Amino acid sequence: MDQRRPYVFLTIAAAVAFASTAPTLVQAQDTTRAIPVAIHGFLLTTYRTADPLVIDGFRLRKADLKFSGPVSPKLNWRLSFDAAKVLTLNKTLSEFGDSVALSDAAIDQRTRMLQDAALTYVVYRNLTVDVGQQIIPLGLEGTYPTAQIETIERTLFAIERSRAVGLGDVRDIGVSANGTFASNIVEYHVGTFNETGEGAGTVDVNPQKAVVGRVAFHPLPTVQFGGSGGFQGGPTKQRRERAGGEFQVKTNEITVRSEVMSARDGLLHRLGWYGLGAYRPTARLQLVGRYDWWDRDRTAEAILQNAVQTQVVAGASYLFDGTVGKFAVNVVRQSFPNVTTVKNATFLLAGFSGVW
Questions:
Q1: pTM reported for the whole predicted model
Q2: Burial class of residue 118, CB neighbours in 10 A (0-12, 13-18, 19+)
């Protein structure tokens, strides 16, 4: 028997998996059983121009690759990576006499490519338990895949991370329970994690754990409302509090969504909210508008890093090549009402993406 045959099987199976979103059978090395592995991906390249805070140019915004499959009838696994992430360094400065010098530098583990790395156990039909690194249940838009977001960029309180950590679309290591009851009218997610999003890819640096939860009510198939929150105790500097509310109406033709999110990180208090409306006149064309309000620091407005920021976004997107490709254009009107050193600006953001 040709000893190279298992490797040939593996190569062929990997090629088929990248060409299809359907689960693919990858031949096990011992050829005793087939291991089903689903491979999905998402690639987004953007171009930004006329933004006074960002140099014009192209950016590889997302390059996600996701793997998942069953371990047993009740146990599933998943791994995902974002190859577009850029490693950054955490730097420590020390004083030596009358000068300051770099005394230590380490990779920020949150900027590594690894996204999800978790096992899911199906307790019964409407209850699952996730263990590992996962998105924490905070906010509604923050739990959506990037490919499903109506605008090119998420809301400001989720993507803006110059102070502390984002308030949506953040991951940490822990365990969570997820499910529904009352005929799927009530949806819940609750878990305990090392931190509230700043601990992804690291070991816990303190004995306190964060508890984060979200509940949503679905009185009608097209309507939902609810809230989310989180808490981590300890000394003032490491204390974390989160509280948010959400509302959404979504049909085949329209989406109306609004969220508010408040956070305390030690002495830092942050608050953000947005309102979004989208209209889909055809299955492939979508028109969208969003108003975004974000205050990085409720107690200060002196400099850009503390200031209130507002954005008015108007845009359109079109699905092509079936529904796997999308081209989107957003026009953004940005202002910092309380900072006179930064002028109001209108800039263009374009995105070209593919999902498989």
A1: 0.84
A2: buried
